[in-house]
Protein backbone atom coordinates (compact mmCIF):
# COMPACT_ATOMS: atom_id res chain seq x y z
CA UNK A 1 0.00 0.00 0.00
CA UNK A 2 1.56 3.36 -0.99
CA UNK A 3 2.44 5.89 1.68
CA UNK A 4 2.41 9.67 1.29
CA UNK A 5 3.35 12.39 3.74
CA UNK A 6 0.51 14.62 4.91
CA UNK A 7 1.59 17.57 2.68
CA UNK A 8 1.90 15.21 -0.34
CA UNK A 9 -1.51 13.67 0.27
CA UNK A 10 -3.15 17.07 0.84
CA UNK A 11 -1.70 18.31 -2.40
CA UNK A 12 -2.82 15.22 -4.29
CA UNK A 13 -6.43 15.35 -3.11
CA UNK A 14 -6.41 19.17 -3.13
CA UNK A 15 -7.36 19.83 0.49
CA UNK A 16 -5.71 21.68 3.34
CA UNK A 17 -3.24 19.80 5.56
CA UNK A 18 -5.43 20.47 8.62
CA UNK A 19 -8.28 18.62 6.88
CA UNK A 20 -6.04 15.60 6.41
CA UNK A 21 -5.03 15.68 10.12
CA UNK A 22 -8.72 15.85 11.14
CA UNK A 23 -9.61 12.86 8.94
CA UNK A 24 -6.73 10.87 10.45
CA UNK A 25 -7.91 11.79 13.98
CA UNK A 26 -11.49 10.82 13.07
CA UNK A 27 -10.29 7.44 11.77
CA UNK A 28 -11.36 8.04 8.17
CA UNK A 29 -7.75 7.82 6.97
CA UNK A 30 -5.15 5.25 8.01
CA UNK A 31 -1.72 6.57 8.93
CA UNK A 32 1.58 5.52 10.43
CA UNK A 33 4.56 7.27 11.89
CA UNK A 34 7.90 6.66 10.13
CA UNK A 35 11.03 8.29 11.59
CA UNK A 36 8.87 10.89 13.29
CA UNK A 37 7.01 11.82 10.10
CA UNK A 38 3.29 11.06 9.77
CA UNK A 39 2.42 9.19 6.54
CA UNK A 40 -1.04 8.55 5.14
CA UNK A 41 -1.66 5.04 3.88
CA UNK A 42 -3.33 5.39 0.48
CA UNK A 43 -5.61 2.55 -0.53
CA UNK A 44 -6.06 2.00 -4.23
CA UNK A 45 -9.64 2.37 -5.50
CA UNK A 46 -11.74 -0.75 -6.03
CA UNK A 47 -11.43 -0.73 -9.80
CA UNK A 48 -7.63 -0.41 -9.49
CA UNK A 49 -7.52 -3.99 -8.17
CA UNK A 50 -8.30 -5.13 -11.70
CA UNK A 51 -5.32 -3.19 -13.01
CA UNK A 52 -3.58 -6.38 -14.13
CA UNK A 53 -6.55 -7.38 -16.25
CA UNK A 54 -7.07 -3.84 -17.50
CA UNK A 55 -3.39 -3.51 -18.35
CA UNK A 56 -3.48 -6.78 -20.29
CA UNK A 57 -6.55 -5.63 -22.22
CA UNK A 58 -4.94 -2.29 -22.97
CA UNK A 59 -1.75 -3.99 -24.16
CA UNK A 60 -3.80 -6.26 -26.42
CA UNK A 61 -5.64 -3.23 -27.80
CA UNK A 62 -2.37 -1.40 -28.39
CA UNK A 63 -0.96 -4.44 -30.22
CA UNK A 64 -4.12 -4.72 -32.33
CA UNK A 65 -3.96 -1.01 -33.19
CA UNK A 66 -0.27 -1.30 -34.12
CA UNK A 67 -1.08 -4.17 -36.48
CA UNK A 68 -3.92 -2.14 -38.00
CA UNK A 69 -1.57 0.82 -38.41
CA UNK A 70 1.03 -1.40 -40.10
CA UNK A 71 -1.64 -2.78 -42.44
CA UNK A 72 -2.84 0.73 -43.29
CA UNK A 73 0.74 1.87 -43.86
CA UNK A 74 1.28 -1.05 -46.26
CA UNK A 75 -1.94 -0.18 -48.08
CA UNK A 76 -0.89 3.45 -48.25
CA UNK A 77 2.51 2.48 -49.68
CA UNK A 78 0.81 0.32 -52.33
CA UNK A 79 -1.58 3.13 -53.24
CA UNK A 80 1.29 5.60 -53.48
CA UNK A 81 3.17 3.20 -55.76
CA UNK A 82 0.06 2.75 -57.95
CA UNK A 83 -0.39 6.52 -58.07
CA UNK A 84 3.22 7.01 -59.18
CA UNK A 85 2.79 4.35 -61.89
CA UNK A 86 -0.48 5.92 -63.01
CA UNK A 87 1.12 9.36 -63.18
CA UNK A 88 4.01 7.95 -65.20
CA UNK A 89 1.59 6.21 -67.57
CA UNK A 90 -0.49 9.38 -67.81
CA UNK A 91 2.59 11.46 -68.66
CA UNK A 92 3.63 8.93 -71.29
CA UNK A 93 0.17 9.00 -72.88
CA UNK A 94 0.17 12.81 -72.90
CA UNK A 95 3.59 12.89 -74.59
CA UNK A 96 2.41 10.38 -77.20
CA UNK A 97 -0.75 12.41 -77.82
CA UNK A 98 1.29 15.59 -78.21
CA UNK A 99 3.60 13.86 -80.70
CA UNK A 100 0.58 12.49 -82.60
CA UNK A 101 -1.04 15.92 -82.60
CA UNK A 102 2.14 17.53 -83.92
CA UNK A 103 2.42 14.87 -86.62
CA UNK A 104 -1.23 15.31 -87.60
CA UNK A 105 -0.73 19.07 -87.70
CA UNK A 106 2.23 18.68 -90.03
CA UNK A 107 0.24 16.31 -92.26
CA UNK A 108 -2.71 18.67 -92.37
CA UNK A 109 -0.40 21.58 -93.21
CA UNK A 110 1.09 19.52 -96.03
CA UNK A 111 -2.36 18.59 -97.34
CA UNK A 112 -3.53 22.21 -97.20
CA UNK A 113 -0.40 23.34 -99.05
CA UNK A 114 -0.88 20.68 -101.74
CA UNK A 115 -4.55 21.56 -102.14
CA UNK A 116 -3.73 25.26 -102.36
CA UNK A 117 -1.15 24.54 -105.07
CA UNK A 118 -3.68 22.38 -106.95
CA UNK A 119 -6.33 25.11 -106.67
CA UNK A 120 -3.85 27.67 -108.02
CA UNK A 121 -2.94 25.33 -110.87
CA UNK A 122 -6.59 24.62 -111.69
CA UNK A 123 -7.37 28.36 -111.51
CA UNK A 124 -4.57 29.08 -113.97
CA UNK A 125 -5.80 26.27 -116.25
CA UNK A 126 -9.33 27.61 -115.97
CA UNK A 127 -8.17 31.11 -116.90
CA UNK A 128 -6.21 29.73 -119.88
CA UNK A 129 -9.24 27.72 -121.00
CA UNK A 130 -11.47 30.76 -120.59
CA UNK A 131 -9.07 32.81 -122.73
CA UNK A 132 -8.94 30.07 -125.36
CA UNK A 133 -12.74 29.84 -125.34
CA UNK A 134 -13.02 33.60 -125.93
CA UNK A 135 -10.59 33.43 -128.81
CA UNK A 136 -12.44 30.50 -130.33
CA UNK A 137 -15.76 32.30 -129.96
CA UNK A 138 -14.35 35.40 -131.60
CA UNK A 139 -13.00 33.29 -134.44
CA UNK A 140 -16.32 31.50 -134.90
CA UNK A 141 -18.35 34.71 -135.36
CA UNK A 142 -19.28 35.47 -138.87
CA UNK A 143 -16.86 37.99 -140.34
CA UNK A 144 -18.22 40.94 -142.18
CA UNK A 145 -16.55 41.84 -145.25
CA UNK A 146 -14.42 44.86 -145.47
CA UNK A 147 -16.78 46.98 -147.54
CA UNK A 148 -19.68 46.02 -145.16
CA UNK A 149 -17.63 47.03 -142.21
CA UNK A 150 -16.56 50.17 -143.95
CA UNK A 151 -20.06 51.29 -144.76
CA UNK A 152 -21.46 49.87 -141.53
CA UNK A 153 -23.95 47.83 -143.36
CA UNK A 154 -25.93 45.37 -141.31
CA UNK A 155 -27.60 43.16 -143.76
CA UNK A 156 -29.72 41.16 -141.69
Description:
The chain is mostly helical. Among the domains are: 3-43; 45-104. 72% of the residues lie in helices and 8% in strands. The protein has helices at 6-13, 17-26, 51-140, 146-150, and strands at residues 3-5, 30-34, 37-41. It has a 3-stranded antiparallel sheet with strand order 1-3-2. The longest helix is centred in the middle third of the chain and has 90 residues, at 51-140. It is rod-shaped, with a radius of gyration of 56 Å. The termini are far apart.
Helices and strands, with pairings:
Elements: E1 3-5, H1 6-13, H2 17-26, E2 30-34, E3 37-41, H3 51-140, H4 146-150
Antiparallel strand pairs: 1-3, 2-3
Q: What descriptors fit this protein?
A:
156 residues, mainly alpha, 3-stranded antiparallel sheet, 4 helices, 3 strands, rod-shaped
Query: What is the helix content?
Result: over 70%
Quote the distance from N terminus to C terminus: 151 Å
By secondary-structure content and strand pairing, the structural class works out as mainly alpha
Number of strands: 3
**SSE pattern:** EHHEEHH
* Count of runs of 4 or more consecutive helical residues: 4
Strand percentage, roughly? 5-15%
Taking the sheet with the most strands, its summary is:
3 strands, antiparallel
Mass-distribution shape:
rod-shaped
- Would you identify the regions where 5 or more consecutive residues have pLDDT less than 50? none
Q: What integer value in Å does the Rg equal?
A: 56 Å
Q: Strands of the largest sheet, in order across it?
A: 1-3-2
Mean pLDDT: 86
Amino acid sequence: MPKLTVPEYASQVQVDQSTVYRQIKAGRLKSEQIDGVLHVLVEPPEDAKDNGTLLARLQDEVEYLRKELDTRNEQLALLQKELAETRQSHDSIIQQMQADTESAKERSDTIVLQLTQQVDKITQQNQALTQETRLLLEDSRPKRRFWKRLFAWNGG
